[in-house]
Specification:
Layout: E1 3-7, H1 12-23, E2 27-31, E3 50-52, H2 59-66, E4 71-74, H3 81-86, H4 88-109, E5 113-119, H5 142-161, E6 164-170, E7 173-174, H6 187-196, E8 202-204, E9 210-211, E10 214-215, H7 216-228, E11 236-240, E12 246-247, H8 248-259, E13 266-268, H9 283-289, H10 297-314
Parallel strand pairs: 1-2, 1-4, 2-3, 4-5, 5-6, 6-11, 7-10, 8-13
Antiparallel strand pairs: 9-12
Helix pairs in contact: 1-7, 2-4, 4-5, 6-8, 8-10
This protein binds uridine-diphosphate-N-acetylgalactosamine (UD2).
Uridine-diphosphate-N-acetylgalactosamine (UD2) binds at residues 79-81, 119-121, 170-172, 186-187, 190, 202-204, 209, 211, 248, 271, 274-275, 278.
């Protein structure tokens, strides 16, 4: 698969895509400012990639990083609804302006295709379930607006400049190497690390909030398929998810069962900007570029918990 640039390569998703690209024999370059990513995530592959400790908001750096590249996997972001609510301006730079800089650098370098980590947050609280790509977006949080605006930039770059772009709307991705340590971390990463440490997790809301929790292997596979397909994907948006909904209470029970946690869970008020229910219709990605759910929620949770146990042992 030629040469690929992964932005946010030291993040949970970027580092997983980089591993898969290497396994496919691609030449991999990666850029990360290590703001939310960590060198530990790429320690095992650092000698095999051209790693650049740079910021996508540094135009010279991103322009240089795109030189000679066929595919860009743009995963760099500050991926958090509450963080964006707290700091809408600070998150707009990396999440939206950064995306524009990546597109501009890719266009100038003659990149073949840009794959973009879009978000299910774009759908907002529309009660229609499952969410499908033809629905009118209704972003609630600044994060959702930033990610959706990025999609529009992608479509614009395809229409105006002929750069091939594909927006993959990720639905609550989880798996090994996801950072559990911040209050902004994904709920499953937090639940797992807290329960393994014998700490009481907190559910924001009454526990009936639901998500289409998607194991990382599905996202990696979707990216590779969307990069390689000859189907007409340019300028389009695709859901990447499992099509199945799990409530926070069900997720808590499942993590409890696998970790052997014996404690309880705290209930706290819902978070500002949160969406109540989210689940995807995944037929567009299935029909267009052969996307399949390669790993379901139960398998993903087992894998993630096994990995977290080892990571704790070696920490
Ligand atoms: C949004 C997007 C997701 C992705 C992510 C950024 C939606 C539906 N999903 O995820 O696709 O872009 O942003 O990585 O917009 N929660 C708890 N306890 C905790 C932590 C969280 O109950 O300790 C709740 C939280 O209030 C929310 C749910 O769990 O109701 C999921 O939260 P999250 O931060 O894992 O992800 P979310 O849905 O904001």
């Amino acid at each position: 698969m030629a040469t690929a640039l992964v932005t946010g390569v030291a993040g949970f998703i970027g580092s997983s895509i980089a591993r898969a690209l290497l396994a496919e024999g691609a030449t991999v370059r990666g850029i990360d400012n290590l703001c939310t990513g960590s060198l530990a995530n790429i320690e095992a592959i650092k000698s095999q990639i051209d790693f650049r400790h740079d910021d996508i908001l540094d135009q010279a750096a991103i322009t240089s990083a795109c030189q000679g590249v066929d595919y860009v996997f743009h995963e760099a972001a500050i991926p958090s609804v509450p963080k964006s609510v707290e700091d809408p301006i600070g998150t707009n730079g990396p999440n939206l302006t950064g995306t524009l800089y990546v597109l501009e650098a890719a266009r100038k370098a003659g990149v073949k295709r840009v794959l973009y980590a879009a978000s299910s947050a774009a759908y907002g609280d529309d009660p229609t379930l499952p969410k499908h790509e033809a629905m009118l977006p209704g972003p609630i949080s600044p994060y959702a607006v930033q990610k959706l605006a990025g999609e529009h930039y992608l479509a614009s770059y395809t229409r105006v400049y002929g750069l091939e772009t594909v927006a993959l709307r990720y639905f609550n991705i989880f798996g090994p190497r996801q950072d559990p340590s911040s209050q902004y971390s994904g709920v499953l990463a937090r639940f797992i690390s807290q329960m393994l440490a014998g700490q009481t997790p907190t559910i924001f809301g009454d526990g009936t909030t639901s998500r289409d929790f998607t194991y990382i292997d599905n996202v990696v596979s979707a990216n590779l398929l969307a990069a390689k397909t000859s189907a007409p994907v340019a300028g389009k948006v695709f859901n990447v998810a499992t099509g199945r909904r799990v409530t926070l209470l069900e997720a808590f029970d499942e993590v409890k069962r696998i970790t052997g946690y014996t404690g309880t869970v705290n209930l706290a008020p819902e978070r500002e900007g949160d969406i109540k229910h989210s689940v995807a219709n995944i037929s567009l990605a299935q029909q267009t570029f052969g996307y399949k759910v390669v790993a379901d929620f139960a398998y993903g949770l087992e894998q993630t918990i096994a990995w977290c146990k080892e990571a704790t042992v070696y920490a």
